[in-house]
Amino acid sequence: MTDLQLTLVRHGATEWNEGGRWQGVTDNPLGGSGEAQARRLARRLRGQVFDQVEASDLQRAVQTAQLSLPGQNITLDPRLREIHFGAFEGLTVPEMSAHPAFEEWQSDPWQVAPPGGESLAEVAARMRDWAEDLHQPAVIAFSHSVAIRALMCELFGWPLIPQSGYPVPFAHRIGHTSLSRLRRHGGHWTMHTLGDGAHLEVQGEG
């Protein structure tokens, strides 16, 4: 199996992100702030060389890839999509909480899927299937928050930790256009950075 340096990027922000709506596979474009985040990322990635550029086929991921790596060929793969939230698509957390299926989903979100959607285990399985198919030495991929963290759980055995006011049981958050860097060597995965958003920090003058 080819040794691999993998950079995973969460897409830039959409209007639904800013409004607290969980969009899943709803195909929203980047908002103005998301475009600005992607342009900052472009400055950070300038000069870095990748053998392969991949992205979820949802437009917020595609647009982030295009803005941050202009002129690069991008391979789209639906396995990089966000979790399908089914009946919870487009809802805020309070609206989700009022849904009659919410408690059942929260009882075991790794195995239980929202009505019409995916379980975290299903997301993790397709993400790992995608990752194991990579055969270039240096790959950057533009994906989504829950999908990236589900892959981390699958690869590294992260425990699921329920979070107050947050329906996905991940202890770590990753920001928009943040970078998470992994290495695969001899079939063994290691994580080097998680959710690195240094390019979004406001720089002072002088």
UniProtKB/TrEMBL annotation:
Keywords: Hydrolase. InterPro entries: His_Pase_superF_clade-1 (IPR013078), His_PPase_superfam (IPR029033), Phosphoglycerate_Mutase (IPR051695). The keyword Secreted does not apply. PANTHER family: FRUCTOSE-2,6-BISPHOSPHATASE TIGAR (PTHR46517). This is Phosphoglycerate mutase. It comes from Deinococcus malanensis. The lineage of its organism: Bacteria, Thermotogati, Deinococcota, Deinococci, Deinococcales.
